[in-house]
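Exercise (ungraded).
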Amino acid sequence: MTRNVNNPAGVHTRTRDSGMTEQGRPGTVLLSELVSHLRQNRTQLREEWARRITEAQLLTAMTKDEIFAEATSVYDNYVEALETGTFEALQAYARNLSERIIPRGVETHEVVGIVLLLRDVLARSLFAKYQADFTKLNRILDAYEPAANRIANTVAVGFVQERERIIREQQEAIRELSTPVLQVRERLLILPIIGVIDPQRARQLTEQLLRGIRTNRAKVVVIDITGVAAMDATVANHLVQTVEASRLLGATVIVTGLSPEIAQTIVNIGVDLGKMNTVGDLQGGIEQAERLLGYKVVPAA
Amino acid sequence: MEVPILKQGDFLIATVQAALTDADLLHFRTALIQQVVRCRSRGVIVDLTSLDVMDSFASRTLRDIAEMIRLRGAETVIVGIQPEVAFAMVQLGLKLENVTTALDLDEGLAHLGLKSTSGA
């Protein structure tokens, strides 16, 4: 650890995460001192931290008791990470914490905020304790800062990763929900599409439909896109491909519910509309399908 | 690899059992049209149920086959294209234009049967 005499607080090498300097022992001694200080003053420091969290209006989705309980866990995990220099336990805790608080509506800036506040609270307590010995303060900070930064990083990244995982799961759930292939008559399938179709969903849709045609031995499929607000040229192409692939399995496709905008898109991409069978609405589509299959629907009496 | 061609009344049924080389495809094309002439068939079913790949040459040959058989006054129905194969084909732009397709052998025969009774 080098220090410029003219700049005592300045340039110094970063110590490794365990808080140990290259020389080894001095760092370990300092770190133990740091950790025992944090343990001894656990109660006040936790309370100070919880107070600052409320003051900063963070974690408003949680009650005071809940905040204090989580603050205790975070504090203890924090000190342990400082002490052991290993971060696996902290990572696991961060993921676990995120899993619990994300459904409560806690946001990323709140989680990052509280961890940085803890870092500040602990740093201030170190300033207070070692104010008489500037040299020692610097050495303690050399041990503390890199570890504290790594902890903040670990918690924030853990939170964000958990959010991303949840988003991916939700997207998958939405995809599965929204493409049912329904048999409404012998040999007649309906595929009602609702919402946004991205290329991945379009592909899933096609695969599901083709399997449905084979399983149900469908001769006619009505694809209803009334519920689709917009479609770009890529997806319109996918729709055309779905129609062609269905034909290869011997099924006729009737597309219903094209909005004026989508009709425009399809014309623009130059699809030969003679090949695409379209009817205005689902009712008309089903009626035509029934005719193709040789059904005649008459009133009962 | 020889494609077995079976006679069923006025119809022929050819079952492709595995991926065919280009040479096999040409041989099949020749053998099939010769059988159509010999048996005076009115309809032909080409069953692709066992096929799990399709390339552009195979696709073109199937179109040629349908065209040649049509010139003899008979109709061809391609049946049994698997969903994965159909999907791959449309992505590659291999459309079997002007070729009748049906889900399976049953459907194919029903289609040819209907056509013959409707007086075609």
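Further reading is listed at the end of the chapter. For now, observe: The interface with chain A takes residues 79, 81-83, 85-87, 89-91, 95-96, 101-104, 107-108 of chain B (CB under 8 Å). The longest helix of chain B spans residues 22-39.
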